[in-house]
Design brief:
It contains 12 helices and 25 strands. 31% of the residues lie in helices and 26% in strands. It has 2 domains: 139 residues, FAD/NAD(P)-binding domain (3-Layer(bba) Sandwich), CATH 3.50.50; 200 residues, FAD/NAD(P)-binding domain (3-Layer(bba) Sandwich), CATH 3.50.50.100. It has 436 residues and is of the alpha/beta class. The protein starts with 6 loop residues before the first strand and ends in a 21-residue tail after the last helix. The chain has a 6-stranded mixed β-sheet with strand order 5-2-1-9-21-20, covered by helices on one side. It has a 4-stranded parallel β-sheet with strand order 13-12-11-17. A 3-stranded antiparallel β-sheet has the order 6-7-8. It binds flavin-adenine dinucleotide. The site of flavin-adenine dinucleotide has 34 residues, from α1, β2, α2, β6 and α7. It comes from Williamsia herbipolensis. Its EC number is 1.6.5.9. This is NADH:ubiquinone reductase (non-electrogenic).
Length: 436
């Protein structure tokens, strides 16, 4: 890389970071992409990894390989921990705990979001969220070992808490994982257990709102509800999960405040996200007040006020109530890169406002049932499922992953089983066990 070209530092190799990096391939800059993981993770399919349909390799593409054609780019593994905006330096932690500094002329913060427990961080030890490959594998460990433990127990009463799965949050991720656990139980596992019937599994979806999938048109969310009912998912509306313990959860009615205990060993948390912790360091250093969930407010051109060289994109950015979805991340990452290219080339319109083009949203409910909404177009059932599949394959990074994902889907549809059910006992250093 040429040493006299402006340095662009991108923090985060998710949708926003990768789209920015790809656009900067043609720019006269040197790019460093810093990520705390080695791969670009396709988060929309994490739940399929968690339920044994896909492997972690199918949904995670090595950043070095993905961006190998960007000749002006280097990739660093490390977690950004501090920033000095006067010196234009970001400090990052290496895997071994030591730190190093990276200088930048332009910064694109694309570090995304993490699961939010809304001030109840103590829930996390019993109720993993779904944001990383680690989360998906931890959830898989919990789900698969619950069925295995149930197989060794002699009575339905003893098995019940192991075969009760509570999901907090009725947005797309909650609905998708709820449907997948039931499908796993009634299709993939149904003929493989001897002492009990996996269909005994009860999946309870707890949602504070009046209907699931509130980001979709009511007619579509009604259809999704019917499909969930048919699949055997129990939906509890108007209640929040207000306590999570090792062997039970408490739900509370939003209006009456009446509480109810559900005995379970598996609680999954999908109710809300917040900006990653490094966003706090950036907000403090730039003097901006964080917006909802710790996200960083930006101007229409995605720059932080008073800091012409700092752009914030994707889930960590706050702009006009744009949703935290992949499309916003991709388009905003691309836009920031376009503006940096224009500044470097001395071109006009280096502060053009970001205009989001909403291409629509999709959510998977169960086999042959998905929702797809794009402007006036509303698809559900089989057509929605075809549209959902097409979009996910199109945006999945890497042709190898596309082929393997299609093959895994086809094999599950034809054979019924799921091949990715291996569980590990976690990193011995941190002693993560299936049940804390
Ligand atoms: C389970 C799930 C399902 C979803 N389904 C859909 C869907 O169907 N459709 C849709 O449009 N959207 C969906 N989303 C949302 C979508 O995935 C996000 O909006 C999108 O990933 C945001 O992209 P991003 O680049 O801003 O952040 P991310 O994709 O989260 O990437 C952020 C990157 O930053 C890295 N990072 C974080 N902190 C640091 C640090 N301090 N230092 C270095 N690196 C760091 C992370 O490792 C990560 O690689 C889903 C999300 C989840 C979790």
């Amino acid at each position: 890389m040429a040493g006299d070209r402006p340095n662009v530092l991108i923090i985060g190799g998710g949708f926003a970071g990768v789209f920015a990096a790809r656009r900067l391939k043609r720019a006269n800059v040197s790019v460093t992409l810093l990520d705390r993981g080695t791969s670009h993770v396709f988060q929309p399919l994490l739940y399929q990894c968690a339920t044994g349909l896909l492997s972690e390799g199918d949904i995670a593409s090595p950043l070095r390989h993905l961006l190998r054609r960007c000749r002006n780019l280097r990739v660093f593994l490390g977690e950004a921990s501090d920033i000095d905006v006067a010196a234009k330096t970001v400090t990052a932690r290496r895997f071994d705990g030591s730190t190093f500094d990276i200088d930048y002329d332009y910064l694109i913060l694309a570090a995304g979001a993490r699961q939010s427990y809304h001030g109840n961080e103590q829930f996390e030890q019993f109720a993993p969220g779904m944001k990383t490959v680690d989360d998906a594998l931890a959830i898989r460990r919990k789900i698969i070992s619950s069925f295995e433990i149930a197989e060794t127990l002699p009575t339905p009463a003893l098995r019940k808490p192991w075969l009760t799965f509570v999901i907090s949050g009725g947005g797309p991720t909650g609905v998708e994982i709820a449907g997948q656990i039931r499908e796993l139980a009634i299709r993939a596992l149904s003929k493989e257990f001897d002492s009990m019937d996996p269909a005994e599994a009860q999946v309870i979806l707890v949602h504070g709102g009046e209907r699931v999938l509130e980001s979709f048109h009511p007619s579509l969310s009604g259809k999704a509800q019917k499909t969930l009912d048919k699949l055997g998912v129990t939906t509890v509306l108007g209640r929040h999960v207000t306590d999570v313990q090792r062997d039970h959860v408490i739900t509370t009615d939003k209006k009456t405040k009446a509480t109810e205990q559900i005995d379970t060993h598996t609680v999954l948390w999908t109710a809300g996200v917040e900006a990653v912790p490094f966003a706090g360091a950036v907000a403090e250093a730039t003097g901006v007040t964080p917006a909802r969930g710790g996200t960083i407010p930006v101007g229409p051109d995605l720059r932080v006020a008073g800091h012409e060289n700092i752009f914030v994109v994707g889930d960590v950015m706050s702009l006009d109530k744009l949703p935290g979805v992949a499309e916003v991340a991709m388009q905003s990452g691309h836009h920031a890169a376009v503006l940096i290219s224009r500044v470097v080339d001395g071109k006009a319109k280096a502060d053009s406002p970001f205009k989001y083009r909403d291409l629509g949203t999709a959510a998977y409910i169960s086999r042959y049932h998905a929702l797809l909404e794009s402007g006036p177009l509303r698809l559900s059932g089989f057509l929605g499922w075809l549209g959902w599949g097409g979009i996910h394959i199109f945006f999945l990074a890497g042709s190898r992953n596309r082929v393997w994902t299609l093959a895994s889907w086809a094999s599950t549809i034809i054979g019924g089983s799921r091949g990715e059910r291996a569980i590990t006992y976690g990193d011995p250093e941190t002693a993560r066990r299936p049940y804390p």
